[in-house]
C-alpha cells in the first residue's frame, strides 16, 4: 500500500473521536488560495472585504468582518494576508 492510503486510513479512523466546529471560525476555508481558480487566471493584486454572522447555542451571536489582500508573485506563488475581527453577544459560560 502507498503512504497516501495509510494517511487517509489514519485520518478516517481518528476523525470519529474529533470534536470540531468546522473551519468557518478561523476563516481558513475562505482563503483565496483554496479556491479552484488557477493562478494564471487571477489578477496580480486582489482585495476582498466580507462579513460573517453566526448564531449559536444559548442565543449567542457572533459578527465577523474581514479584510483580505493577495498578491500573485508569479504563476506558481501567491501571498495572502487576512485581517479578521469578532464581536460576540450572548450568554457565555465556562
Task: Write structural notes for this entry.
This protein has one domain (about 25-90). It is built from one helix and four strands. It has one helix at about 5-15, and strands at about 45-55, 60-70, 80-85, 85-90. A hairpin with a 5-residue loop joins strand 2 (about 60-70) and strand 3 (about 80-85). It is flat. The termini are far apart.
What attributes characterize this protein structure?
94 residues, 4-stranded antiparallel β-sheet, 35% strand, 4 strands, mainly beta
Q: Name the helix and strand elements from N-terminus to C-terminus, one letter apiece.
A: HEEEE
Q: End-to-end span in angstroms?
A: 45 Å
For the biggest sheet, the summary is: 4 strands, antiparallel
| Structural classification | mainly beta
Shape: flat
Q: Compute the gyration radius: what is it?
A: 18 Å
How many E strands?
4
Give the averaged pLDDT, no decimals: 77
Share of residues in helices: 10-25%
Amino acid at each position: 500500500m502507498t503512504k497516501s492510503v495509510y494517511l487517509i486510513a489514519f485520518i478516517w479512523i481518528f476523525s470519529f473521536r474529533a470534536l470540531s466546529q468546522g473551519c468557518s471560525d478561523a476563516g481558513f476555508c475562505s482563503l483565496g488560495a483554496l479556491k479552484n481558480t488557477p493562478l494564471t487566471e487571477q489578477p496580480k493584486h486582489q482585495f476582498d472585504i466580507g462579513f460573517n454572522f453566526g448564531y449559536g447555542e444559548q442565543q449567542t451571536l457572533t459578527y465577523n468582518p474581514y479584510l483580505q489582500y493577495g498578491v500573485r508573485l508569479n504563476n506558481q506563488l501567491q501571498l495572502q494576508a487576512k485581517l479578521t475581527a469578532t464581536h460576540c453577544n450572548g450568554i457565555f459560560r465556562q
